[in-house]
Input
Amino acid sequence: MGLLAAVIFYIFALPQSPGQRAVIAVVIVVSTLLLVLLLTFIDAAYTLYQTRPSVLPRVLTGREPFQGTSAALICLLEPSDLFFHGILVSLYRVAEEGIELPIGAGSVANIQEDGNILIEVTQVFKEQEDFAQSLRQNKAGALKVTRVKPYMHQLMFRTNEEQE
Output
């Protein structure tokens, strides 16, 4: 496309000097190649964005809380750049219909040297206590359908206040 435009412009160019026409033709070809290269990079970046894997870490293990903590549940997560020490987190389980149901809330207690994230779940909703017990017992099925998100929606605060 750029080469064709350069040849046509070269033939019908206003400047009559062959040197000026050659410079204009080279500028058109190089500009067209740069435009095609830029569009290729934009398309590649968009494709990578669309096909990126989930950034939420998987739950590796669940267990009973440590002595002396106010936690109801302890979970170890894969490394993730979304989490840092002390932030509030919310836990969900994916139901059969694909709907994420809230389990409870807690915070990041530690980012370990290997990058794994230790969270303390301090509040478990009453209707999710059986599922939380499955997590404490480190059941693979429960671990697989649990999602931990690095924020806590304001509705979780309201629901917690209503339970008390």
